[in-house]
């Protein structure tokens, strides 16, 4: 179960050029922005990765502005965990749960999920905040990640599971993001 005090949000490669290749780019940017803003509001640590930013661009502004610059990492490996700095940063927060989003589901998100599971973490893949250029690749990756032990979820489920109750002091602020 997701809890504010032991969860980390990991956003994989939601970058200018990669987003531009997606059919559902508006939905992916919006849902990642909602998660990033919610994590900032709830003081949940957030890390973002950028695959070869010189060629693929930076993390989308609406997302980047909600993440500390020291938590945005460049990478060349497909798995974010292939970059030791990222793994060290994740471990420094001592999370039990990782909420995982990003692009592309069947490459970088998939490989990162498997490595995080190997590290003993509970991985929650947000189905409506991950994407691939091809629907079959997206679906296959979700099936594989579930087979390896990842939990599949969606944005609102994550948010309300973290809040637990409508009496949470940040409930109205979070709710306003999804209306």
What would the CATH topology be?
A: Rossmann fold
User: What coarse outline follows from CA principal-axis ratios?
Assistant: globular
Task: Pick out the low-confidence regions.
Answer: none
Mean pLDDT rating? 97
* Topology order in helix (H) and strand (E) letters: EHHEHHEHEHEHEHH
CATH class wording? Alpha Beta
Ends apart, CA distance between termini: 24 Å
CATH architecture term: 3-Layer(aba) Sandwich
Main β-sheet, spatial strand arrangement: 3-2-1-4-5-6
Number of strands: 6
CATH homologous superfamily grouping: Isochorismatase-like
The largest sheet, given as strand count, sense and whether it forms a barrel, is: 6 strands, parallel
Question: What is the domain total for the residues?
Answer: 1
Beta content comes to 15-25%
Q: Structural class of the helix and strand makeup?
A: alpha/beta
Helix content: 40-55%
Number of contiguous helices:
9
Please state the CA-atom Rg, rounded to the nearest Å: 15 Å
Topology diagram in text:
Layout lengths: L6 E6 L3 H5 L4 H17 L4 E6 L1 H4 L4 H4 L7 E4 L8 H9 L4 E7 L1 H14 L3 E10 L3 H13 L3 E3 L1 H9 L7 H8 L1
Helix pairs in contact: 2-9, 6-7
């Amino acid at each position: 179960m997701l809890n504010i005090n032991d969860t980390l949000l990991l956003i994989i490669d939601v970058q200018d050029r990669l987003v531009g290749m997606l059919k559902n780019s508006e939905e992916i940017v919006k849902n990642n922005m909602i998660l990033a803003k919610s994590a900032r509001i709830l003081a949940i640590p957030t890390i973002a990765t950028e695959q070869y930013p010189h060629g693929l661009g930076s993390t989308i502004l609406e997302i980047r502005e909600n993440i500390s610059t020291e938590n945005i990492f460049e990478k060349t490996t497909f798995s974010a965990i292939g970059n030791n700095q990222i793994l060290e940063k994740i471990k420094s927060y001592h999370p039990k749960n990782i909420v995982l989003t990003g692009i592309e589901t069947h490459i970088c998100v998939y490989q990162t999920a498997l490595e995080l599971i190997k590290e003993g973490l509970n991985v929650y893949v947000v189905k409506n905040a991950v994407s691939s250029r091809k629907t079959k690749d997206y679906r296959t990756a979700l099936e594989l990640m579930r087979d390896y032990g990842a939990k599949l979820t969606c944005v609102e489920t994550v948010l309300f599971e973290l809040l637990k109750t409508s009496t949470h002091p940040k409930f109205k602020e979070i709710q306003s993001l999804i209306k």
